[in-house]
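Entry 12.
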Amino acid sequence: MIITNFLNLNNINNYNDLETKLKTEPYNLKFKKKSNLTLIYNENNENNDNNKENLNENENNIFSENENINFIKDACNGIIIDNNNLNIIRYVYNKTNLIDNLKNDNIIINPCIEGTLISLYKYNDKINISTKKCIDSSKSKWISKKSFYDLFLECWGDNDFSEINENIIYNFILIHPDNNHIIKYINKGLILLNCRSMEDLSILNIKLNNDNVEYFNINIIDDVDTFIENKIDINFNFKLNCYKFKNLDSYYYFFNKINKYTDIHKVIKGFFLTDNINSFKNIFENYNICSEFKLNHSDPLFSYFCLRKDYYKLDKYIKLFPEELNNILTIEHNLIMMNKCIYMIYIDSKINKNKNILIPKIFKTTI
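Predicted 3D structure (tokens):
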């Protein structure tokens, strides 16, 4: 594996050396420790593909004195390691911005679902549930008042964890009505993205004895037009179907045809292509447009104030998300009433010189 090669080439055999290497220039990766585990991630999560080598080369030969910095950052982003022996405890995919980095003979096209990555694994006889940037998901929240741990358990249901193997990483996509952003999912659910062996990180074909867990259905497509005509209708479940094409040209043709469905971005973000090691995202244009206007922020009031600075953005936002008009009107009404309250207190205290008026603490600085 790439990460193992990196450790060997840099003579890294303990946690302190790894942290020193990756926390400093040119990598600047972030480390979050919890007991004997550490989560490594790229805070900016930006990929600069200049001088990025083709990953179809032999893994042992892709490093030189000038290491492929961005590729290492991609490979380490989101992994969880055992501090004692540097074993990888959680791994999903390497993210890449170059589709040429995928091995063409083994590409699967998966739906890109707007959800939260959740990893389930057993470490030291204890069940762990982690998000992309938090080892303990009970400490992680976003829009919902519930933690991602709580949301996961809601989706997992009454099933126990007796069949969770200590040598396997189970990676899920969590979708939940309390965790919506641009796409409004009505039903909660867990989709098994992949299972990996902790020994060599290979993909394992596993199905859990839990009716609440859903799986992708693979479609092998020889003729794109025939598949679209015969299979894709109002009942087609884009969230649970993935595809294998005879070549990338067929995939691009499929993507462009599907992209013409005006509401497809309200079901999935796009597609991500993977060869089981690297992954590449293709996002729909309409989803990208929505992303420009809907901030990825957990506080709707803060998002509203950011939009309110530009009338064009606020107007466009309402057109893109008409279901949120009532919430916006409520915020605007409350804002007007607050302004009136501040104004009346100011007139009474500063103009009319009413010394008996009590100025609320939250308004004192403003007044």
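Annotation: Residues 46-67 have pLDDT under 50 and may be disordered. The longest strand covers residues 189-197.
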